[in-house]
Write a structure and sequence with these properties.
With about 400 residues, the protein is of the alpha+beta class. The strands form two sheets. It has a four-stranded antiparallel beta sheet, covered by helices on one side. Strands 5-6-7 form a three-stranded antiparallel beta sheet. Helix 2 packs antiparallel against helix 3, helix 4 packs antiparallel against helix 5 and helix 7 runs antiparallel to helix 9. The relative contact order is 0.08.
Length: about 400
Amino acid sequence: MAVPKEYSESIEGLRGLKATKDFRKYYFRFKINGKEYVHMFNYNDKDWTPKDLKKNARTYAETYQKQKEIELKNPFNPDTKVGYIADQYFINKCTASTWTEERKRIYELHIKEIIGNKKISAVLENDIDKIRKRLETTGCTKQNEKGSSIRTIEKVLFQVLKPILEYARNNGAIDRIPQITIPARPKKSLRKKTVKDGTEKIISLFNAIESRYQNDPLYRGLFFFALFGRRWNEIATLEWSDIDFAKKRYTIRAENNKIGIDQDYYLPPQISSTLLEMKDDRIGLVFKSTRTGEKMHSPRKQLAHLITDTGIEELTMHYFRHIYVTALGEQGAAATVLSAALGHIRSDTVDAHYRTIAHYQSSESADSQLQEIIGKSPNHTEASREANRAIETLTKQQESEV
């Protein structure tokens, strides 16, 4: 492997260490047991003289090489970097799933910058407090730019960081895990994320979707799924094999939801008829990019159109769920029904039996209440008639095939 031309300066005292002419960037190539390794680093943020830059670079490179030798002999030891342990944890302990990918993103966004390059034995309670405090005051999206919710902080610290630290301890790298604390979680009902005038908003959205996407069943179906409480990833990964028109149900597979089990939901007539309009071979993904034929990205441009149509400035794909649960809550839907219809499993609201069967039953119950709400819409009557006609036709076709 050739050394990039920009690294033209050799550093005296350590073979394989090269630098740029300003001694700010470094390229280190070395061998261990006949295998070659390359490591690049820089000191662009340091106000050091060239002499100090070279001296510190040499010291760092020597330390890095020794650390690599230790890792190769025993990858789990007190000097192992948190980033390496995190990588091994996700590779060896986590199954390939949407939830694993989400946890990896959480690590990259909220943990890596603060402790990713730290020795595992050097991670202190103070480091964990830094992660928590940054989460409390800043965020990565418009929704949480002023700070993350306690629920998000819990997810970062207890569902991502703690398992990584436990993996380090279980493999002998550390003896104990630093204490992880968060502010006391306030007692809130299931409807903690309520929306003012949820009923009016859901009617407005239904009308806007029906009107704007009258001749576009792809986006009409996509937004109807959101209107009935589905998360964006659940919509984007839905396949035609997950849809059962005859039984009026669809399945969100375990690898595409947050709780790791298959979840069956009631298929509302508006969605059934819309899907049947789609010109598709009904193989693979239901909602595919019209440009690539692959999995779609979040439809930000179309969301902007709906914001203009409805005046709901805060609308996001996830905000559909807030509107959904608020509108049903205003109609008196039980908390357990709302929880299961949203795809949650909460030990304090859903008992063990309810967890296994309630998603379909609850979504059907929630749907009947939602139909009453949108029944106030002038578009609803004809849409329902079209849905029923389409489903009746499909059922007759299936019966004749049998």
